[in-house]
Amino acid sequence: MAEKIALVAGVGRGTGGSTVRRFAAGGYRVAMLARSESRLQEFEETVPGTSAFPCDISDPEALASTLERVRTELGDDPHVVVHNAARGSWDSFLEMDPADIQANFQVNTMSLLYLAQLTAPAMIARGEGAVMVTGNTSTWRGIPRFSGFAPTKAAQRILAESMARELGPKGVHVAYIVIDAVIDLRWTRRRHPGKPDDFYIKPDAIGEEVFRIAHQDRSTWSFNVEIRPFGEPW
Hints:
Layout: E1 5-9, H1 15-25, E2 29-34, H2 37-46, E3 50-54, H3 60-74, E4 80-83, H4 98-126, E5 129-136, H5 150-167, E6 172-179, E7 182-183, H6 186-191, E8 200-201, H7 203-214, E9 224-227
Parallel strand pairs: 1-2, 1-4, 2-3, 4-5, 5-6, 6-9, 7-8
Helix pairs in contact: 1-7, 3-4, 4-5
């Protein structure tokens, strides 16, 4: 386990950061990808076994170059890949700029394709590996003001399902994890004043679940996974 590499794309102070900490605690060397170099450096300085690789994963050439750096600096291809990058916009379909949905699609869906194309071949060659993709409620439904976001997340899930059906028989586990909740962060607390602790989903609990699913026994692999606080109406 100590020699295995986990790559987490989309590292911030919520789900991505907690996932990084959990895989590092689990004995992985963790390659962290995000656009913010300063944020990655914070994790690199405080979480042993992590390495920062600033990158816009929606840029296929930049991503390919970064993956080559990961292989060179860490000495191997990733054994586990977590796609947690997301971009959203919140306008009515009557008002939104079509360029916004294109940009959202590039981050939410196309970057998953780019990342999988670059990392899955080595997993196939090994006969093992895992690709974990995080989503949210927009994966399943479109509601007003989400028309620039929900279609891109739905497409992301369908892409992940296609990957899972193709890669599963080759020993590579793909799972799609729908986070149906408000994540407990400083800015979400400000947005929902007065809400009790039980209203929020804890980032560390998400990271724990991502780690667990990535290590499921082959006889019990999950694809569609939904997680939510016990009090969340659904």
